[in-house]
Design brief:
With 368 residues, the chain is an alpha/beta fold. Helices cover 36% and strands 21% of the residues. Strands 5-6-7-8-9-10-11 form a seven-stranded parallel sheet. The protein has a four-stranded antiparallel sheet with strand order 3-2-1-13. The longest helix is centred in the N-terminal third of the chain and has 19 residues. The structure holds N-succinyl methionine and magnesium ion. It holds the Pfam family MR_MLE_N.
Length: 368
């Protein structure tokens, strides 16, 4: 394929409720969408970088700039562009994995649409539906938390994940256990909010039968995660730390985690996400698909990825209405706690152009 032009579109989508984590609160999502036009058709990609560099060092304005100024010039010169050649072509630019992932996704979508192959089939999906969990933010009160969790349980979500931080950890976990019982699949995510001084609070979580404790410490601190993993019965899961298949293998071999949250944007794309999946499978470590509040574009691709065999825990692949009153694609609807894997060519969904236009804050087309 030859890349002919790329449309970079920023959209603002309001969240149905504030989403608070240990690193801040989101009330709208500023999303960068990428539409790649090639000589064999077009494809869509979604950049998962947040508006601010608070989850990782990437942020949406920076991703847009590095795509336009450094990444696209390297792709426009490719005479026989394929999704598999995007990574090597961009290797000269260090980091910016979320930006690179968005471009690779758009090229992959265009390529698969031209062949009439679904992303799920291409990646090796083995299921037609995936089990869905849901992520619950830090709430203003315990009662508000229980109301929100009760709503998701009633909708049929297969697993509840609570955001925690020092001072909002033991009480919410205990309250959810008391209100919904010991059989509710339950896990927590600290987004790196703990350190050696506050780690003892996590020891106390070990008696609540959690599925896992996600990313309690700093991204680079595999040693602290390994110390905790040796001390707890509850598995430690890594998110921010795992930026590639090689890092996943190193973390597992250091005993830093027993479960891995895979996010394609965080590792540089869906092709690397499959490599992380495969490495974890080879080392006997289950994985699940994380989320970055994706629109239906990224959600469609995540659901396809989550259908691979070693995705053995419900992911943060929630229904569209968990975050958005109106998605930019036809909404993903939870049925019996599951989402259906798209079967159409490529990612299998298209944005609704009327909705897209209504949410667009800026759009530009980059050409060679
Ligand atoms: C804005 S918080 C994004 C990162 C967070 N994501 C979630 O909690 C799930 C979000 C979703 O359901 O898309 C994580 O660290 O796992
Ligand atoms: Mg996480």
């Amino acid at each position: 394929m030859k890349l002919e032009a790329v449309e970079l579109r920023r959209i603002d989508i309001p969240l149905v409720r504030p989403f608070r984590t240990s690193f801040g609160e989101q009330i709208t999502r500023d999303v960068l969408l990428v539409q790649a036009s090639t000589d064999e058709g077009t494809g869509w990609g979604e950049c998962v970088a947040l508006a601010d560099p608070v989850y990782s060092s990437e942020y949406v304005a920076g991703a847009e700039a590095v795509i336009a100024d450094h990444l696209l010039p390297r792709l426009f010169t490719q005479q026989d562009l394929t999704a598999r050649s995007v990574g090597p072509a961009l290797r000269g630019v260090l980091g910016h994995r979320m930006a690179k992932a968005a471009l690779e996704m758009a090229v992959l979508d265009a390529e698969l649409r031209s062949y009439g192959i679904s992303l799920g089939r291409y990646l090796g999906a083995e299921r037609a539906r995936v089990e869905c969990g849901v992520s619950v933010g830090i709430a203003p009160t315990i009662d508000a938390l229980l109301d929100e969790v009760g709503g998701y349980v009633a909708q049929g979500y297969r697993r509840i994940k609570l955001k925690i931080q020092p001072g909002w950890d033991l009480e919410p976990v205990r309250a959810v256990r008391d209100a919904f019982g010991v059989d509710l699949p339950l896990q927590v995510d600290a987004n790196t909010a703990y350190d050696a001084a506050t780690a003892p609070r996590l020891h106390a979580l070990d008696e609540y039968g959690l599925l896992l404790i996600e990313q309690p410490f700093a991204e680079e601190d595999l040693h602290q995660h390994a110390l905790l993993a040796r001390r707890l019965v509850t598995p430690v899961c890594l998110d921010e730390s795992v930026v590639s298949a090689a890092v996943a293998a190193d973390a597992i071999n250091r005993g830093a985690c027993g479960v891995v949250n895979i996010k394609p944007g965080r590792v540089g794309g869906y092709l690397e996400a499959v490599r992380v999946h495969d490495v974890c499978a080879a080392l006997g470590v289950p994985v699940w698909c994380g989320g970055m509040l994706e629109t239906g574009i990224g959600r469609a691709a995540n659901v396809a990825l989550a259908a691979l065999p070693n995705f053995r825990l419900p992911g943060d692949t929630s229904a569209s209405d968990r975050y958005y009153a109106q998605d930019i694609t036809e909404p993903f609807v939870l049925v019996d706690g599951q989402l259906a894997v798209p079967t159409g060519p490529g990612i299998g969904v298209e944005p609704r152009l009327d909705v897209l236009e209504s949410m667009t804050t800026r759009v530009r087309t980059v050409r060679p």
